[in-house]
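Limitations

Structures in this collection are predictions, not experimental determinations, and the ligand pose is part of the prediction. Treat each record accordingly. The example that follows, with zinc ion as the small molecule, is included so readers can see exactly what is and is not provided: the inputs are given verbatim, and the output is the predicted complex.
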Amino acid sequence: MQKQLPDEAVPAVYCRRCGYQLVGLPENRCPECRRIFHPVDETTCSL
Ligand SMILES: [Zn+2]
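Predicted complex:
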């Protein structure tokens, strides 16, 4: 059996630097301050 997660399951994360909500972005980069983030790394974004 194949288990798939729906796209809606992506948790809301916020930029550590400026607080921008990092949702639905084409890349892991804050569009406000251009900081690179990793959605699973709490040191780069606020979960
Ligand atoms: Zn930012």
